Amino acid sequence: MIKQVLVIISTFLACATMMATPDNATLESSDKDDSTGSTLAQQLDIQKTGGDTIDWLADVASRIQIHGYAQGWYYFQNAGGKRSNSFLCKRTVFWVNAKITERWSFQFMHDFNSVVQEYFTDFRITRNNALTIRFGQFKHGLSYENPLSPTAMETIDVYSEGVTYLTGCGSDPLNGVQYGREQGLAFLGETNNKFLKYELDILNGSGINVKDKDNNKIVVGRIELHPTNNLTLCATGQIGKGTSLVSAPIFNHKIDKDSLYTRNRFTIGFNIKTESFGLHGEFLTGKDADVTSRGAYLTGSWSIVPGKWDLVGSYDYFNFNTDNKCDMHKVVAGFQYWFFKRCRFQMQYVYKSANTDYKTFFNNGRNGTKQENCHALMCQMQVRFN
Length: 386
Known about the structure:
- The chain is mainly beta.
- It is built from 5 helices and 16 strands.
- The chain has helices at 2-19, 40-44, 52-62, 161-166, 356-363; strands at 64-79, 82-99, 104-111, 116-124, 132-139, 181-191, 196-203, 218-228, 231-243, 260-273, 277-288, 291-305, 309-319, 327-340, 343-354, 374-385.
């Protein structure tokens, strides 16, 4: 099995090396920003020639931006002595931004490995960026990590355990798999020369692609401070009520299926980013009815060859039920190679440990699924345009 893994890794690296040396040297770039990218007019090379038809097409195309990325995995894991391995097309995402006017825009996003995830419209109220109103289905502002694209995250498994659980990304069975998104209304903006960024979301709290199930709303607030170009401080919070999708006594024995329960959260985090070094971390806590969850993480990267090779590491702790000492620890170590702008190959070792209480709770329930200490080797190829 190890030989098979090594062969696959060698093949990935060989392909990456060939793609990293294009014939046209002007294509070579180490840019990893989530920039706005080129417009449809630039991609189609539409030029205004004075004709009415061409002018109209060029104007429409200049207002549309097309983006997309794909992330493919290979992983090998040993969980409690049970070994498994698989290839997996994890994400194939396509989204379009349409600029209707100077102040009014629209976005649509679909993951071909999942569901339609985003469709919202933005309208900028002020002449500057101090106030924009957003309506539709979008990523909410809870936690530092949740609004970030998976293509910008250092770890292959993307968000920390606490962020995944508390923001509705999937590990909380009461909330279900919502990909960190909700339907609702948001007020957001930035002031003081981008020193202060804020966001206030009023959300259904019932998940994506469905209407509100209980007429109660979730409110999410977010404040970011940028004292310097290299430092971000972030505090977020959530209050409100939601309806549970299932009964999950292992997670919360006081909440039954279709029960209305309090769903409050709070996080505080930071991000430090330089040309050669990056580090971000966060403390998170939540309360579902009377059950408290708590966690923290630190994730960093170090460029050993700037713009090309990075070392990546992360430590992650989360306890989804502090009354029962259901704590879990995760350690990640690995590297990533950027072979083209926003395109990379990653390989990481992941270790998850669970204490006795945590394993006992899982082994005695959750549809017979066992939670054991796990060792995994993960590889990911990411290709993105714009």
